[in-house]
Amino acid sequence: MSPVMRTIRPPGEMVATLNRVYIFTIVLIAALGGLMFGYDWVVIGGAELFYERYFNLNSSLQVGWAMSSALLGALVGAMFAGVLSDKFGRKPLLLISGFLFVGTSLGTSLAPNFTLFVTSRLLGGVAIGIASSLSPLYIAEIAPADMRGRLVSVNQLTIAFGVVAAQLANWLIAQPTAPGATVAQLPLDSWNVQTAWRWMFGATSVPALVFFISMFFVPESPRWLVKKGRSDRALGVLVRVGGEGYATRSVKEIEATLVNETEKLDLGRLLEPKMLRILLVGVVLAVFQQWCGINVIFQYGSRIFANAGYQVSGILFNIVITGIVAVLMTLVAIGTVDRWGRRVLMLSGALGLSIIYLLVGGAYHQHLKGLVPVVLVVAAIACYCYSLAPITWVILSEIFPNRIRGGAMSVSVAALWVGNFVLSQTFPIMDERLGLDRCFWIYSAICFLGFVFIFLRLPETKGKTLEQIERELVD
What we know:
It is a single chain. This protein has a single domain (17-474), classed as Growth Hormone, Chain: A, CATH 1.20.1250. Helix content is 77%, strand content 2%. It has helices at 20-54, 60-88, 90-110, 114-142, 148-173, 191-202, 205-214, 222-227, 231-257, 273-291, 294-299, 301-307, 312-340, 342-365, 371-385, 388-398, 405-434, 436-457, 466-474; strands at residues 5-8, 16-19. A two-stranded antiparallel sheet has the order 1-2. Helix 13 runs parallel beside helix 15 (371-385). The model is unreliable at 1-15 and 260-265 (pLDDT under 50).
């Protein structure tokens, strides 16, 4: 069979021939938003060692604000992304996201004072919020049903690549630091404190520009086009995806779910009992993905590894290892999500994290240093990255009906960033007052509660079209 075209038979339907090259090209371009999201989200974890010295940040409040300002911006971006994309389209909003990524990467790297640094981080967060909301949604709306899980997971893979790129950049740029130096011993006039962190933030401007330019060459979401009464344009996109029969069938199925809904934007529908029930699942899963605690490791990895006895060079190297593990385990998710289903991956991830965090807390409670806490932290990253990290985005892109998808995705992703903001803002205080051991025990309990919720409320969606999922959840 040609590597370009793939023939499938949707349940109960005629054969469709899928243009795999066209599909994957679109998906990879859209997923560059995930790459930017991953880099911008994690780069601060290594740069934190140096900009805190440069700006003389002494209080836990200042440290938390520097870290969480981008998350507040992400909340704003996510809140408006869905509503605006329902009105103007997915593509224009992703273009705005790319433009903001370019500008704020340069703005953060050139910031002469803490105020402008935080302002750039806030606006960069808006870009993150838009990309995190719309990249997986756009991919889901253009992907064939039997490929949707792994194609949406590609977005998480690019996030993981962005994470690794940020970690590698941090590690390599910071190499002039003396191997045995601690953070407190870094001279104020050193390369790292004065310049390195600027290069760490500025490096992302190049892929950001690639993302921005590439988005001009992808089509609009066919489901959005149908919703706006432009079925002829949607048909043209879907013909390129899977041929005439696939396109005709898909447009008819989409139109059937949007009767009397074209050109209509009514967020009040989110509060209808059936819709609210689905929205609740999305919001809880989104918040749980953040409050499972893994982002503490990504964002405050330098502090966690310092508590395990590592110095600057070792800290940054260990952070790189966590990123590589994240990429490898995301590949596992891509290979299994459309075969094993969403539920089994989410359940195993939540329970696995609960157990690992118990052990991590025990390791810090016993003041263990060196390899043991590092191995446990890496195990937590591995568990998260084949389950909650990619599969949550798959589920959020699938479960909402066509007529409310943009708005419901906005609410869910906004809730996700609220959870991330609260987590990032409170962790330094929790660490200071409770210690790392009790922090991880709290996250263990949260993960167990998440396991119970997933077991009771999460439906299986693998192999179904978005319209089939809608009929099962709403009717």
